[in-house]
Specification:
This protein is of the alpha/beta class and 316 residues long. The chain is 38% helix and 18% strand. The strands form 3 sheets. Strands 3-2-1-4-5-6-10 form a 7-stranded parallel sheet, sandwiched between helices. Helix 2 links the parallel strand 2 and strand 3. Helix 4 runs parallel beside helix 5, helix 6 packs parallel to helix 8 and helix 6 packs across helix 11. The chain starts with a strand and ends in a 6-residue tail after the last helix. The model has no long low-confidence stretch (mean pLDDT 96). The structure holds nicotinamide-adenine-dinucleotide. Nicotinamide-adenine-dinucleotide binds next to helix 1, helix 4, strand 5 and strand 7.
C-alpha cells in the first residue's frame, strides 16, 4: 500500500506516520513537509532511516511540481499539513488560507490528476464553531468563527465538491483538540508545561472557562488507520467526550509541578473571538468499532516527562 502524507514531520503527522508504518506492515510512506516552526525532522528520523519503506520530501504543499510525479497511482493520500494555531491566524490569516485552503485544493487536484485512489482530509471540530449545549454531528452545517477554522472549512467545501463532480473516494475526519508529545509549545498543554519548566507563569485567555475535549494523538491516528482499513468514505467526527475548562488544565499542570496556582497562572486578554465550548457527537465512528483508549489525565505525567527531556527541540 503506497501512502502519501503531508505535514508528516509535525505533531499529529508524525504520530500518524508511526501508526501507518507499524500497523500496516506492507505500507510505503512518502512524507512531505515544508518544515515550518511546528515541525522537526527528528520526529520522524526513526522512520525515515528505513529507506525501503519511507521517503521524505521537503516541500510546500502548494508546489505540486515537487511531488506530482511521485504520487502517480498511489493508494492513499492524507492531507495533514496546515497552519494550525488559532492565535497566529488572527494576525496572519492570508498564510492560513494559502496553506490550509489553496494548498489543500492543489493537493486534491494533484491527487486527482495522478489517479490517487483515496484522499483523506484531516480537518477539525472547529469548523462547526461553538456549541454551548449538546453536540454537533457530521450532518450539521459549518460555522467557523476564526481565520484558522474558516480556512479548514473552506478546504472541506472544495474537497466535498470533488465527490460529486469527479466521483472521488474521499474521507474527511474532524478531530477535537489533540494532545501528546511533539506538539509545539503554543497550544494550551505544551505551552503550560514549558512555561513552568522555565519557571514562568502559564498564560490563560480571558476567564479560562472555555471548554474543550482532548483526544490523544495516538487515538486519533488509530481512528484514521481503522477508517482507512475499513475503506470508509464521507465525514467522521473523531473525539473524546470528556470536557475540561482551560483553567482546570492549567491548575492540574501547576499541581503536578508543585507550583502555587495563584502565582503561576496569569490571565491574559482573550482572543478577538473565542469559541466557548466545542462538542462533537462521535456515535458514527463508535458504531464501526472505534473508541478512545487513552485519557489526558492518565497521560499527563508522561507528556511532562517528554517535554522535560526534549524542550531543546523547540525554538521558544
Ligand atoms: P502542526 O502545526 O503541529 O503541524 C503542521 C505540519 O504541517 C508541520 O509539520 C508543518 O511543517 C506542516 N506544514 C505547514 N504548512 C505547510 C505547507 N505549506 N506545506 C507543507 N507542509 C506544511 O499541526 P498539528 O496540530 O499537527 O495539526 C495537523 C492537522 O490536524 C492540521 O490539519 C490541523 O488542522 C488538524 N487538527 C489539529 C488539531 C489539534 O488539536 N492540534 C485538532 C484537530 C485537527
Amino acid at each position: 500500500m503506497k501512502i502519501f502524507i503531508t505535514g508528516g514531520a509535525g505533531f499529529i503527522g508524525s504520530h500518524l506516520c508511526e501508526e501507518l508504518y507499524y500497523k500496516i506492515p506492507n505500507s510505503k510512506l512518502l512524507i512531505l513537509d515544508k518544515i515550518t516552526y511546528a515541525a522537526n525532522l527528528k520526529f520522524i528520523s526513526h522512520l525515515v532511516k528505513d529507506k525501503k519503506r519511507v521517503k521524505f520530501i521537503r516541500a510546500d504543499i502548494i508546489d505540486s511540481f515537487k511531488y506530482k510525479k511521485q504520487i502517480n497511482n498511489f493508494d492513499i493520500a492524507i492531507n495533514v499539513a496546515a497552519e494550525s494555531h488559532v492565535d497566529r491566524s488572527f494576525n496572519n490569516s492570508i498564510l492560513f488560507t494559502k496553506t490550509n485552503t489553496l494548498g489543500a485544493h492543489i493537493f486534491f487536484q494533484t491527487c486527482l490528476e495522478q489517479k490517487v485512489k483515496k484522499i483523506i482530509q484531516v480537518s477539525t471540530d472547529e469548523v462547526y464553531g461553538e456549541k454551548l449545549n449538546g453536540s454537533f454531528n457530521e450532518q450539521n452545517h459549518l460555522n467557523p468563527t476564526n481565520p484558522y477554522s474558516a480556512s479548514k472549512a473552506a478546504a472541506e467545501i472544495i474537497i466535498k465538491s470533488y465527490k460529486y463532480h469527479f466521483k472521488s473516494n474521499i474521507l474527511i475526519v474532524r478531530g477535537n483538540n489533540i494532545y501528546g508529545k511533539r506538539q509545539f509549545p503554543e497550544k494550551l498543554i505544551p505551552s503550560s508545561i514549558t512555561k513552568l519548566l522555565k519557571n514562568k507563569p502559564i498564560e490563560i485567555h480571558g476567564s479560562g472557562k472555555h471548554v474543550r475535549c482532548y483526544l490523544s494523538a495516538k487515538d486519533f491516528s488509530r481512528a484514521i488507520c481503522m477508517l482507512l482499513k475499513k475503506n470508509k468514505t464521507g465525514v467522521f467526527n473523531i473525539g473524546n467526550n470528556k470536557y475540561y475548562k482551560n483553567i482546570e488544565i492549567a491548575e492540574t499542570i501547576c499541581k503536578k509541578f508543585g507550583k502555587d496556582k495563584k502565582k503561576f497562572i496569569n490571565f491574559i486578554k482573550d482572543r478577538p473571538f473565542n469559541d466557548r465550548r466545542y462538542s462533537i457527537n462521535i456515535k458514527k465512528i463508535k458504531k464501526i468499532g472505534w473508541q478512545p483508549q487513552d485519557s489526558l489525565m492518565n497521560d499527563l505525567n508522561e507528556i511532562i516527562k517528554w517535554y522535560k527531556n526534549n524542550i531543546k527541540l523547540f525554538k521558544i
